[in-house]
Automatic annotation (TrEMBL):
InterPro entries: Helicase_ATP-bd, HIRAN, P-loop_NTPase, SNF2-like_sf, SNF2_N, SNF2_RAD54_helicase_TF
One term of GO molecular function: ATP binding
UniProt organism field: Salix viminalis
Localisation per UniProt entry: Nucleus
GO cellular component, one term: nucleus
Name of the protein described by the UniProt record: TRANSCRIPTION TERMINATION FACTOR 2-RELATED
Annotated ranges, domain Helicase ATP-binding: 250-487
Protein origin, superkingdom: Eukaryota
UniProtKB keywords: ATP-binding, Helicase, Hydrolase, Metal-binding, Nucleotide-binding, Nucleus, Zinc
Pfam families attached to this UniProt entry: HIRAN, SNF2-rel_dom
Lineage: Eukaryota, Viridiplantae, Streptophyta, Embryophyta, Tracheophyta
């Protein structure tokens, strides 16, 4: 077991905005982090029923499958391409799965040797078991009672383990350590040098981009049109090898056409993305603008009521109000978004009779509050009629061909989550040219319905857009990797083994790996780096004395609140009353700001033994 470093900084504060990647050298151990108990040997069976293959010594993903109709304890085995290879044999799964479901253990797998000359219907696999230190004995007892042999560090058989998480370097076999692999990838990234600059097509984008936006556009276009092997893949003797998992294949893996666009808030990510989409209309796919306005709809003069909403739906009954911009009438979207029954509609459309499907339709997913931002940016920065946009929100079309007529389809995370169980949902039937997740930190929980819905979308290009890709901790990044389908990090067991566990255990290697990983797929610029010529931010702290009335009420409230919280702690009910604790903090802050913010009868109720009622009273204010 690796020695855990002490007196280390909080990882949440270090990585909240990704600005400290290059300045921090270690992480703090997470109290609930797990360590390796040992490994068991179990067979992977059912190989003949699945397309996934294993070609030699390689890591495999182990995923619980509780809804399997044939075995409720099923543990399916995935290779690095996310293809199923088979299942862990029933006898072993029956012992391990209940422990996994109770959050007692995590498991990872490695196939130690090539299957050449062996049984073609099964492959031996070393299943490595991880648990919290205080649960070691319970786990060992449960596995032993289940009839499995657990090889631990105290036993001679432990030396047979070939797991990269235990023995990351094997000099005799000439294998590179994981950290040597990450270092080589980092060197390749650094060799690419500075960003170039790219002008957007003026046929679509009428605004002038700042220099950092042109560089961002160059980065986006180059990633979308790269023909390079994905990171951590190499070509050897005519075959392609994932150097992290040792997976071999004869088929060249698809380039990673996408990534994380993590510029700081206010640097114009939306305009940069619209410029990227503009090349779909006026470029040759590589950022080179054609000499004529192919596929750009002509503007129409005069009164264009019918042009504002497709399907002959006009702005009427006050649901979509008109405003005159530049001598033309346009539909406002802000009013429609406040209506719970808003109908899906096309906006900024040049010709309502245009029924030709777009060859490159982009799906943009964002929270409802960001809808108006995208529409405003379209109005301000794009030529009138150059892009056809459909709002897939509220009452909306069920026709796939209708969506394909548009350059941009705007929708929300909640809409996709609601449609995810529908087999005939039109968004699930389309092979999108591009999917953009705006405010992508919304899907930081990989188990949420929203996260699963966007990850299951079919797309040629995938973009994650957020100024805060890490909000709570490094595990937030896993859901982004799953959406990007960045193998092998898109499989949770690989993510845990290669990154999450070293980070949480305070291992310096974990931070170095995270830095390399993010450097390969993300672009991050901040305002304090001078990219837009703004002066540095100045923060001044002024201490203000409360008035006599405020101080008296605050002290009374604080004393009562302390008693309530302490009672929750003593009765072990703190988490069940978490909302009450948050209300306590809210009321104390309100007193500090202005007594007018508090409920009017707050003082008359103090002192009392019913502080919970005081705290929750009128919380909608």
């Amino acid at each position: 077991m690796e020695e855990i470093q002490e007196d280390q900084e909080d990882p949440v504060s270090l990585y909240m905005s990704l600005d400290n990647w290059q300045d921090c050298s270690y992480l703090q151990e997470t109290p609930n982090e797990s360590f390796m108990v040992g490994f068991v040997i179990a067979n992977i069976v059912g190989l003949q029923y699945y397309s996934g293959t294993i070609t030699g010594r390689e890591l495999v993903g182990l995923v619980r499958e509780p809804l399997n109709p044939y075995d409720q304890n099923a543990l399916k085995v995935l290779n690095t391409r996310c293809l199923q290879v088979g299942h862990i044999e029933r006898s072993a799964a029956a012992v391990l799965s209940p422990l996994i479901d109770s959050n007692m253990i995590n498991v990872e797998g490695i196939v130690p040797n090539s299957r050449s000359g062996g049984n073609k219907f099964k492959i031996p696999c070393q299943v490595h078991v991880f648990a919290r230190v205080e649960g070691f004995e319970i786990v060992k007892t449960a596995i032993s009672r289940g009839g499995l042999v657990l090889f631990s560090q105290m036993e001679v058989g432990f030396g047979l383990s070939e797991a990269m998480v235990v023995k990351e370097k094997n000099k005799k076999s000439g294998l590179k350590s994981l950290d040597e692999i990450f270092k080589l990838v980092d060197e390749n990234v650094n060799k690419k040098g500075k960003l170039g600059a790219l002008e957007p097509p003026k046929e679509v984008i009428k605004s002038q981009l700042f220099d950092h936006q042109k560089e961002g556009l160059w980065w986006l276009v180059n990633r979308e049109n790269s023909g390079e092997l994905p990171p951590f893949w190499e070509e050897k003797d005519g075959k392609f090898v994932n150097v992290l998992t040792n997976y071999h294949t004869n088929r060249r893996p698809e380039p990673l056409r996408g990534g994380i666009f993590a510029d700081d808030m206010g640097l114009g990510k939306t305009l940069t993305l619209l410029s990227l989409i503009a090349f779909d209309k006026c470029g040759d796919g590589t950022g080179v603008v054609r000499g004529h306005k192919d596929n750009v709809a002509e503007e129409i003069g005069g009164d264009d009521e019918d042009a504002s909403v497709s399907g002959s739906k006009k702005c009427r009954r006050g649901r979509v109000s008109k405003k005159v911009i530049g001598g033309r009438k346009k539909c406002r979207v802000e009013d429609t978004l406040s209506d719970g029954n808003v109908k899906g509609k096309s906006v900024l459309i040049a010709n309502k009779s245009s029924g030709v499907p777009c060859a490159k339709t982009t799906l943009i997913v964002c929270p409802p509050a960001v809808f108006s931002t995208w529409i405003t940016q379209l109005e301000e920065h794009t030529q009138r009629g150059s892009l056809r946009v459909y709002m897939y929100y509220g009452e909306r079309t069920r026709e796939v061909e209708e969506l394909k007529k548009h350059d941009i389809v705007l929708t929300t995370y909640s809409t996709l989550a609601a449609e995810d169980p529908w087999e005939d949902a039109p968004v699930k039937k389309i092979d999108w040219y591009r999917v953009i997740l705006d405010e992508a930190h919304v899907i930081k929980n990989a188990n949420s319905q929203q996260s699963r819905a966007v990850t299951n979308l079919n797309a040629k290009r995938r973009w994650v857009v957020t100024g805060t890709p890490i909000q709570n901790g490094s595990l937030d990044l896993f859901s982004l990797m799953a959406f990007l389908r960045f193998e092998p990090f898109s499989i949770k067991s690989y993510w845990q083994s290669l990154l999450q566990r070293p980070l949480a255990q305070g291992n310096k290697k974990g931070l170095a790996r995270l830095q390399v990983l993010m450097a390969t797929i993300s672009l991050r610029r901040t305002k304090d780096k001078g990219v837009v010529g703004l002066p540095s931010k100045t923060v001044e702290t002024h201490y203000i004395e409360l008035s006599g009335e405020e101080r008296e009420l605050y002290d009374q409230m604080e004393a009562e609140a302390k008693g309530v919280v302490q009672n929750f702690i003593n009765t072990d009910n703190l988490m069940r009353n978490f909302s009450t604790v948050l209300c306590i903090i809210l009321r104390l802050r309100q007193i500090c700001n202005d007594l007018a913010l508090c409920p009017s009868d707050l003082r008359s109720l103090l002192p009392s033994n019913s502080i919970e009622g005081i705290l929750t009273f009128n919380t909608a204010e």
